[in-house]
Amino acid sequence: DKNAPLVFNFGMGAVGIFREYEYFKRLLADGYKPQRVGIEIFAADVSHELFATRDGQFLVTRARWGELDDYRRYSEVPPDLEEIWKESRWNPLYRYGMTMPHQTLSWRLIPLPGIRRMEQMPYDPWGWVLMENTTPEAEYRELFPRVKDYYQGYFKDFHIPPKTDLALRAFLDLCRDRGIRPFFLEMPESEDFRAMHTAEGDSQLDAWLSAIRKEYDNVPLIDASKWIGRAGFTDGHHLNGEGAAEFTRRFGEAMPALEQ
């Protein structure tokens, strides 16, 4: 369809509101100006400090030098950002840096036979991680308990950290200043994953989003949380190939309604 919207997905892992905001600023700095930008809302990550100290070393390696001030601003107790960042750049054996197996990701474009066999994960010619179309039930049963152990604490003590609110408003202020129309996208979750939600937590999330949407000219919301059945997930919140295809189809169908 020649009238279909052109949609670009950053495809970045371990990305919450803060890092969505940082990558969006990179896009603008590189001279791009989208008509719309979707801000992913994942309930478990909302109830989580944007840049927690325990995540610091892993995440700082993804930052650009000029972004470290933002990392300080949105962290309750920032680690030694400069030292982490510098060591991740010069030391190929640094635990949280680009270790040798990961460095081969940048080598895959070199036309040498067998170069891709050096990689830890399989990638397609476009750089995307290959995934299976379906997930065996046994694999799902093995993976979901790990996910549950990691996330269930965020739901039991659900709250909106002040700096999460601050970062989302900064994101929306930037959109307003640049004349870009934002929308919120609540991400898919399996029934097992949604079972970790609490009524109180969902109420807090809904009230928070509702207030911000009204404050910022009725920001549209696409609620995709129940779009995909359990068979479309690898572990309850990551989609497999079939789930991703179904999500893409439904997302495309939902986009035109944003213009009404």
How would you sum up this structure in a few lines?
The protein has about 260 residues and is mostly helical.
List keywords for this structure.
260 residues; three-stranded parallel beta sheet
What order do the SSEs take from the amino end to the carboxyl end, as H and E?
HEHHHHHHHEHHEH
Beta-strand proportion: 5-15%
Report the mean per-residue pLDDT as an integer.
Answer: 82
* Strands, total number: 3
- Low-confidence parts, pLDDT < 50 over ≥5 residues? 98-109
Rg result: 19 Å
Helix content: 40-55%
Net shape? globular
Number of helices: 11
Commentary on this structure:
With 260 residues, the protein is mostly helical. Helices cover 44% and strands 6% of the residues. It contains eleven helices and three strands, in the order H-E-H-H-H-H-H-H-H-E-H-H-E-H. It has helices at 17-29, 43-46, 56-60, 68-73, 81-90, 100-103, 137-156, 162-178, 191-194, 199-215, 241-254; strands at 36-41, 181-186, 221-223. The protein has a three-stranded parallel sheet. The longest helix has 20 residues, at 137-156. The protein is globular. Mean pLDDT is 82; it is low at 98-109.
